[in-house]
């Protein structure tokens, strides 16, 4: 099912040894020998073959070949941030589907930066077979499309043209969170989230649109996707002359950082400041936290991603499948009313 409104794009075909052979003007057997480092290939031919492989994005997977020979199945799962529990929820859903099909899941953990992610993904591609599932990737669409020439790719939390993807409607989620604050009487609402990269703008755009529809000025605060930087930005903002009465954070981790900063400044939540997070992770449900948050059905995202990945292990080509889930807001104790 495609709810994104965009026309599905064809899946990028996986680059094969035959493609490299055709580009280099040699036989497939010679390509196989050159890539495996076997004797009998001249230096000139090897250079020609390796150049052609690099141009096409072909990557020889030695471990994959060994596993395939043993009829073993494995699925690569890349998660962006080990400290964000939403990725654990996604992984749980995916693992349930993989185990039901007797498929091994190999985990690779990255960091919230494209440069670091490329290094981790490179290691994953060298070692894995089947399909690679990206949860929360910071790589641009073009980089993901390039990787998809080597191995089928599924993305979670972001819809990518030409690649199987599953996500939650972040624009609606941003709208739900903001309108919840507006309905509580807040008129000075700030949004905390990263501005760099521009890969996940929908939560911010949903917030911005809801504010503008209410005739209010959006106030976007640039902060990295972690608790420490959110606390830093919140400390500065909450000590400013025009302190907001509410903050909507891009995720629960950032919301916790905001709450920590408020506590350090002696502010009461929700009496002095209301806070909403996003992801509805385990920490938001703790009794002493009680964070109001947007639930994006993380486990379900993982289940759908698992189904897509398992299907692509045996069925390549065709049209990319995009699935968009509907979020819902879970109200707890961090939002107060303003008279």
Automatic annotation (TrEMBL):
Keywords: DNA-binding, Repressor, Transcription, Transcription regulation. CDD domains: HTH_LacI, PBP1_LacI_sugar_binding-like. SMART domains: HTH_LACI. One of its GO terms (molecular function) is DNA-binding transcription factor activity. Residues 15-69 form the HTH lacI-type domain. This is LacI family transcriptional regulator.
């Amino acid at each position: 099912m495609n709810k994104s409104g965009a026309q599905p794009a064809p899946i990028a075909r996986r680059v094969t040894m035959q493609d490299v052979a055709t580009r280099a003007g040699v036989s497939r057997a010679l390509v196989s020998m050159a890539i495996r480092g076997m004797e009998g290939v001249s230096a000139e031919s090897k250079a020609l073959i390796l150049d052609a492989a690099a141009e096409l994005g072909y990557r020889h997977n030695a471990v994959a070949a060994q596993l395939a020979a043993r009829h073993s199945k494995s699925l690569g799962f890349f998660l962006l941030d080990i400290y964000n529990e939403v990725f654990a929820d996604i992984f749980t859903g995916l693992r349930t589907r993989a185990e039901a099909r007797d498929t091994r899941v190999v985990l690779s953990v990255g960091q919230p930066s494209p440069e670091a992610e490329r290094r981790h993904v490179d290691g994953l591609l060298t070692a894995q077979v089947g399909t690679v599932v990206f949860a929360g990737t910071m790589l641009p669409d073009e980089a993901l499309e390039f990787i998809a020439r080597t191995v089928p790719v599924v993305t979670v939390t972001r819809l990518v043209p030409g690649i199987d993807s599953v996500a939650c409607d972040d624009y609606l989620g941003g709208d739900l969170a903001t309108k919840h604050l507006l309905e509580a009487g807040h008129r000075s609402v700030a949004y905390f989230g990263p501005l760099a990269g521009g890969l996940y703008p929908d939560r911010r755009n949903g917030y911005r649109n809801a504010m503008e529809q209410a005739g209010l000025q959006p106030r976007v605060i640039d902060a990295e996707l972690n608790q420490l930087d959110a606390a830093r930005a919140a400390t500065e903002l909450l000590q400013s002359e025009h302190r907001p009465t509410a903050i909507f954070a891009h995720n629960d981790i950032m919301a916790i950082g905001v709450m920590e900063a408020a506590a350090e400044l002696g502010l009461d939540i929700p009496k002095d400041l209301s806070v909403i997070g996003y992801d509805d992770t385990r920490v938001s449900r703790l009794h002493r936290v009680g964070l109001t948050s947007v639930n994006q059905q993380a486990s379900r995202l993982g289940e759908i991603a698992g189904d897509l990945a398992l299907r692509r292990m045996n069925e390549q080509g065709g049209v990319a499948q995009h699935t968009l889930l509907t979020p819902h807001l879970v109200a707890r104790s961090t939002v107060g009313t303003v008279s």
